[in-house]
Amino acid sequence: MNLFDVIGPVMVGPSSSHTAGAVRLGNLALAILGEDVKNAVIELHGSFAQTYRGHGTDLALVAGLLGWAPDDLRIPQSFACAAEAGLEYRFVKADLGDLAHPNTVRFRLTGQKGRQSEITGSSVGGGSVIITNVDGFLLEFTGELTVLLTTHQDKPGVVALVTSLLANQGVNVAAMRLSRQAKGGLAVMVMETDQIVSDEIVTAITAMPQITAVRRISRA
């Protein structure tokens, strides 16, 4: 246990789960998309769906998509700032299933350059969050460490190539998770690392013929 666990995050808003956690979920969704958001459909599940206006969850989620921190004093004005930035959004109440955490949101995002992504995550208390699905792949990461997210063909040796490159560059993998849609099809690998992954490493992984996409996500 650390001091953060005792006193909670520095934030704007009444609830660490519904505001600070919501901002961090927006931050991670923005980072996964990899470009400024043009349009966002924000699906709210459980407690998020029932109390999002009263707890400021709606303002916090939009603030996160703008790239703001949980303690940003502009959070109460995030809707107006989103309009100025050209970010269109709408909130939808949704049932994401019995297994979903009560504070769960699914973002359906379109970027300013046309990139699209669907990200599901939950605020699990004290400002902590977890991402559980990216573009239909079941994943699990918190954003508390640097994250390397790769999409590749599900073939032998791909994981070894990537992890060997990281090891040769002095990057330690703290946690890793693999997900695939079908044997031999597309797969996603999530690696949380103790060190920052440099631009050179990202470029080298991107150049591998088996890799179709690489996304680096800094600590949220």
Automatic annotation (TrEMBL):
What pathway, per the record? Carbohydrate biosynthesis; gluconeogenesis
Q: Which InterPro entries match?
A: ACT-like_dom_sf, ACT_dom, ASB_dom_sf, Fe-S_L-Ser, Fe-S_L-Ser_bsu, Ser_deHydtase_bsu
Domain of life of the organism in this record?
A: Bacteria
Transferase is among the record's keywords: no
Q: Which cofactor does it need?
A: [4Fe-4S] cluster
Pfam families in UniProt: ACT, SDH_beta
User: From which residue to which does any coiled coil extend?
Assistant: none
ACT domain ranges (all copies): 147-219
**What keywords are annotated for this sequence in UniProt?**
4Fe-4S, Gluconeogenesis, Iron, Iron-sulfur, Lyase, Metal-binding
GO MF annotation, one: 4 iron, 4 sulfur cluster binding
Q: Which GO terms describe its biological process?
A: gluconeogenesis
Which reactions does this protein catalyse? L-serine = pyruvate + NH4(+)
Against PANTHER family, the record matches this protein to:
L-SERINE DEHYDRATASE, L-SERINE DEHYDRATASE, BETA CHAIN-RELATED
Protein family according to the UniProt entry: Belongs to the iron-sulfur dependent L-serine dehydratase family.
Q: What is this protein called?
A: L-serine deaminase
- Native organism: Dendrosporobacter quercicolus
